[in-house]
Amino acid sequence: MCTGITVKSKAGNSYWGRTQEFNLLLEYDGAIIPRSYDLHVSLDHFLTQYAAMGVALAGHPLLVDGVNEKGLMGGSFYFGHYNRYIESEKIRAQGKLPLAGAEFVTYALTNYASVAEIKERVNQDTAIAIVDNQMGIPQHYVFQDESGASVVVEPSIDGSYEVYDNPVGVFTNSPKFDWHLTNLQNYVGLSDLIAPDIQMEALHVFSNGKGSGLRGIPGDFTPQSRFIRAAFLKHFSEKVEDEQAVEQIFHILDSFDIPKGVVKVSSDTDVQYTQYTSAYDSKEKQMYIHLYENRMIQTLSLNSGILDSSEPQYFELKAEQQYYSMPKKG
């Protein structure tokens, strides 16, 4: 249950953010993966071409989302029932690298420089294989680059990917991305303007308050509803300068924050909630993140001094809530 959006500033710079929900308690680190690093994955290994950083499973060079040194940003999202994974031997027979579902984002961010490069090469380079560990969960992927272009990559064909341009800069979960775009047709009547009063014969009928133009926008946490809500909140939100772009992402994604206990999978202990919300600055190669337990925004930079490190580097995410004590004015 994840939601992602892009924001483009007035200056034309590209930003991206996402919420990360899961019903398993996962531990996360900030991580930087260097260039020219021999990265071992479930079924093989590959050499990284670009340095990348982002949110990783604790102690592992496996990015859930991130940005690379070329400004390409992206993340993995759950894709239940629509993924088509095949045996690794069949992938190798096609001359491709077999990856587990949760490993593709790491491969893409360390091997592609742009959305155009993903579109050109992705079906020549890799495919998603069946593995018998947690890396094999159903996934699909979204990427954005410095130009503002966005692309969706879905392993919904045996041994291959369906690749879609993402014209709205919004992403959630199943069903397939093209279905979500078609579903937007059902909500073209939504408006950012307050609905006007009407005169019904002798009765003056008042508009029912602020936000009435958005009456009918879906408010639940299904992927279909979140896609619609994200698309229209992004569409109607004001254009911002670079200094407000990350703030804008967090404000929009606040609408998708799931408190513990609101969404139960199968029992009172099996709950899905927003474990973190992250945002990325494509130009500055900067990550911003707050956790469920700590709403203070924490940052990490992909600076040039650590791009050629010999090993991945990990950074602690502080889980205890931080508070700012106001000083006396004057």
For the biggest sheet, the summary is: 8 strands, antiparallel
Radius of gyration: 21 Å
Number of domains: 1
Strand order of the biggest β-sheet = 13-12-11-8-7-6-3-21
Q: Which CATH architecture is right?
A: 4-Layer Sandwich
Strand share of the residues?
Answer: 25-35%
Number of DSSP helical runs = 6
Number of strands: 21
The helix content is: 10-25%
CATH structural fold name: Penicillin V Acylase, Chain A
CATH class: Alpha Beta
Which structural class should the secondary elements be placed in?
A: alpha+beta
Overall pLDDT metric? 94
Name the CATH superfamily assignment: Penicillin V Acylase, Chain A
Spans of at least 5 consecutive residues with low confidence: none
Distance between the termini: 46 Å
Task: Name the helix and strand elements from N-terminus to C-terminus, one letter apiece.
Answer: EEEEEEEEHEHHEEEEEHEEHHEEEEE
Shape category: globular
GO molecular function: hydrolase activity
Keywords: Hydrolase
Family: Belongs to the peptidase C59 family.
Organism: Enterococcus rotai
Keywords for this entry:
Penicillin V Acylase, Chain A, 330 residues, globular, hydrolase activity, 7-stranded antiparallel beta sheet, Choloylglycine hydrolase, alpha+beta, 21 strands
